[in-house]
């Protein structure tokens, strides 16, 4: 195989840029409604705004949910220290951490392969 | 001040402790098998793509899209990852995203992590990839090449199937150890209906992403390499 061509560099740069823009920018456009699973667990309950935050009235699965064990961590709920408007930064940090963790894991898996380069599959 | 819903995955307490432990064990065993089998999928060319696919799934999962009034959905990423980097590596991609979300962003319970991994990274990837492989083999019958939009269609359908199967994983866990009185039928019906709609969104994102990668670097796409390997390696 020859060295990386300019075209192939653009592919990697483009993929990385799209990922960062989605996490850092497009994520601000995300719907804040509960997702399919959350809303399934909320069936039967009414979400009531109280002075202490939101409260669930009625009978539903979500009432059995416990607070997250790490709810007080610095990046909890995709915000830096709970500050509003920092979701994009938290997202970019998440992208960097994910690429490092995944890249590291996949690199060690690829390296652990004893046999020479092969693409044999089932 | 209102508390926005930023949680995307199952919280702790929804499924009881024994069932959480059971699915924790299932997830550990499944990821071990995936790490073992991923050695056949990963080489120096595909490692960077696999790392980026994981990061891309993390990023796109942040973007909840509306599916019904007051209900949203987000990408799960199983079919997407499996088509691009292979089923075993793909399952690891989704699992790594869920682990980062649970431990760094307090999203998805820690005791529920096994169930979340089983649903999205095992069921979602397995169903999505099996569908994609079947459809791709059908599309390839009597042809040398499959047109890019056809690959996009395959990606769409397999993403819908993967999403619905991942949602049914939650129904399975709820039926075994759900901590509430809501009837199983109601939960199953609601999860199925919403996840067909979420699957349409997942399908669109998956199709657009897969088509973009197929156009730019078809040599990197795992699903397209499946047939080349069969013809190139006679022994």
Automatic annotation (TrEMBL), chain A:
Specify the superkingdom. Answer: Bacteria
**Residues in PDGLE domain copies:** 10-111
Q: Name one Pfam family in it.
A: PDGLE
Query: Which keywords does UniProt give here?
Result: Cell membrane, Membrane, Transmembrane, Transmembrane helix
Q: Which InterPro entries match?
A: PDGLE_dom
Q: Where are the transmembrane segments?
A: 9-30, 88-109
- Localization terms from the record: Cell membrane
Q: What is this protein called?
A: PDGLE domain-containing protein
The protein's organism comes out as: Mycolicibacterium vanbaalenii (strain DSM 7251 / JCM 13017 / BCRC 16820 / KCTC 9966 / NRRL B-24157 / PYR-1)
